[in-house]
Write a structure and sequence with these properties.
Blueprint lengths: L4 H15 L7 H8 L3 H13 L3 E4 L5 E4 L8 H8 L17 H25 L4 H14 L13
Antiparallel strand pairs: 1-2
Length: 155
């Protein structure tokens, strides 16, 4: 499994947007929550908008908001919108494309990786943004940490 920075940025942003109660958040406000640059946020959230997960409004009071309820957004939906996978596809060694060992590994492991991806997709389809948000709230409460109120003001 690979750690995917874009996916983690997207999920982190989505949890904050969900916690914002349907009100739009600016890229700057989301970036402040993630301790990153607004350009990184705009790039990633733009892909989620194209995937039907977010909507963007311009002008005063505008920004990013969920396009549908959090319980209707699965982690599989987020991965698909970003064109991302948590499983690295097997790459043929370009230096030795006709090597018998490379061919055997590709054939043997390629099918396993396809099966792993199918299982992962099925499981990710059962985890929603609402599940993540609830878990974050619970974990923060157990740790005695008060989640900050997210606003678009003061940025």
């Amino acid at each position: 499994m690979k750690r995917n920075g874009k996916l983690f940025v997207a999920l982190h942003a989505l949890v904050h947007l969900d916690r914002h109660g349907g009100r739009a958040m600016t890229s700057e406000a989301v970036a402040a929550c993630l301790s990153t640059h607004p350009v990184v946020v705009r790039r990633t959230l733009g892909e989620l908008r194209q995937g039907g997960i977010l909507q963007a409004t311009r002008g005063h009071g505008g920004g990013w908001s969920l396009a549908k309820p959090a319980d209707a957004i699965s982690l599989r939906d987020v991965c698909a919108a970003l064109g991302e996978s948590l499983v690295d596809p097997l790459q043929v060694d370009p230096e030795h494309p006709s090597c018998a060992v490379v061919g055997s590994l590709t054939d043997s492991l390629g099918g396993v990786l396809v099966e792993i991806q199918a299982l992962l997709d099925e499981r990710l389809g059962r985890i929603t943004l609402a599940d993540l948000s609830a878990d974050v709230t619970e974990r923060a409460g157990v740790a005695g940490y008060r989640l900050p109120e997210v606003t678009n003001h003061g940025l």
